[in-house]
Specification:
single chain, 361 residues, Quinone Oxidoreductase, Chain A, domain 1, Rossmann fold, seven-stranded mixed sheet, six-stranded parallel sheet, 11 helices, binds adenosine-5-diphosphoribose, binds zinc ion, MycoS_dep_FDH, EC 1.1.1.306, ADH_Zn_CS, mycothiol-dependent formaldehyde dehydrogenase activity, metal-binding
């Protein structure tokens, strides 16, 4: 028996989002219906609305979510009704070359629920990142659900489903930041701030926050940055070198996704240092680097895909650290809002006023 709930739908390119009644089928084999408790508003939701990702309208937005499993379909053994879970973008297969080599974030056979959620007139919805969680309930593949400690605040848990995991993972998984390292983070929005939290957790000795907005640098300090550089007024490469004894940082994390900031990252790192690109560029962006500098500077140039995370390993671990007070994920929640407030939250995000607005259900 299908059921009807409220959800936030992007009807067409650049059209305002609206709350609609959506129809959710019973979970099929390998699927789960999750009662959503919280879902953060992420840039990617705005990109879906603006047509930057796909033209497969209408979209059911929202993908940074936590909730309680309501029902599961045939063959589901990893989660059961009543489990508190964080949703991830794609269930991995466990059998492909990437999975077998321990890099499931590059799985070739990821999947979402195969049944479709619809509007009441039968129009099929495309769930954002295969989730669609600005809704009272949603349908996902059971492998998209990761069980975590239910005593954590849902708004905090949901954040690990996307931006905060991407940032922390960029530092601890991709960048392998270690005790005593110097780190520079370029771009201190939600992702960059999470990279700062991850670097601090990993024991970095210096964490240099770089942004063009002083408000962001102030917040970055509260997240654990030891030094700040405003790159509108200061030469980033020189400033980072000066703060690191003339060398450059061991790890530089680029959390903007632009050629000029990537260039800064490349030269702000120490010889044999690591650059991690976690900011997402657009298709037309290109970088030009002297090949001799790539050769002569050594080290590694990496990108971080979803924080190179293993949800089953990383989500519960980060929740534990938060519950113990060793990281403060609540600091990322600027405001909590209702389903009807997503359009305004997009505007505030665009102005740079919030780290995260979180829809509570
Ligand atoms: N130099 C330094 N900082 C910059 C620059 C620049 N040239 N341009 C923008 N910034 C800063 C902004 O001031 C802001 O603080 O980068 C930050 C970007 O933060 P958000 O817009 O909040 O984005 P966020 O959610 O953190 O995501 C950052 O990672 O996941 C990707 O798609 C996402 O590419 C985006 C990036
Ligand atoms: Zn996201
Ligand atoms: Zn796989």
């Amino acid at each position: 028996m299908s059921q009807q709930v409220r959800g936030v739908v992007a009807p067409g390119k650049n059209e305002a989002v609206r709350v609609e009644t959506i129809v959710i089928p019973d979970p099929g084999a390998g699927e789960a219906v999750v009662k959503i408790q919280a879902c953060g508003v992420c840039h990617t939701d705005l990109h879906y609305k603006q047509g930057g990702i796909s033209d497969d309208y209408p979209f059911l937005l929202g993908h940074e979510a936590s909730g309680v499993v309501e029902s599961v379909g045939a063959g589901v053994t990893d989660v059961a009704p009543g489990d508190f879970v964080i949703l991830n973008w794609r269930a991995v297969c466990g059998n492909c070359r990437a999975c077998l080599r321990g890099r499931p974030w590059y799985c070739f056979n990821t999947h979402n629920a195969t049944q479709k959620m619809t509007l009441t007139d039968g129009t099929e919805l495309s769930p954002a990142l295969g989730i669609g969680a600005f809704a009272e309930k949603t349908l996902v593949a059971a492998g998209q659900c990761t069980k975590v400690d239910p005593s954590v605040a849902p708004a905090v848990a949901g954040l690990l489903g996307c931006g905060v995991m991407a940032g922390i993972g960029a530092a601890i998984n991709t960048g392998n930041v270690g005790r005593g390292d110097t780190v520079a983070v370029i771009g201190c929005g939600g992702v960059g701030d999470a990279a700062i939290v991850g670097s601090r957790l990993a024991g970095a000795a210096k964490i240099i926050a770089v942004d063009i907005d002083d408000r962001k640098l102030t917040t970055a300090k509260t997240m654990g940055a030891t030094h700040t550089v405003n790159s509108r007024t200061t030469d980033v490469i020189e400033a980072v070198r000066e703060l690191t004894g003339g060398f450059g940082a061991d790890v530089v994390i680029e959390a903007v996704g632009r050629p000029e900031t990537y260039n800064q990252a490349f030269y702000a790192r120490d010889l044999a240092g690591t650059v991690v690109l976690v900011g997402v560029p657009t298709p037309e962006m290109k970088i030009e680097l002297p090949l001799l500098d790539v050769f002569g500077r050594g080290g590694s140039l990496k990108s971080s895909w979803y924080g190179d995370c293993l949800p089953s390993r990383d989500f519960p671990m980060l929740i534990d650290l938060h519950q113990q007070g060793r990281i403060d994920l609540a600091a990322f929640v600027t405001e909590t809002i209702g389903l009807g407030d997503v359009e305004q939250a997009f505007a505030r995000m665009h102005e740079g006023d919030v780290l995260r607005s979180v829809v509570m259900l």
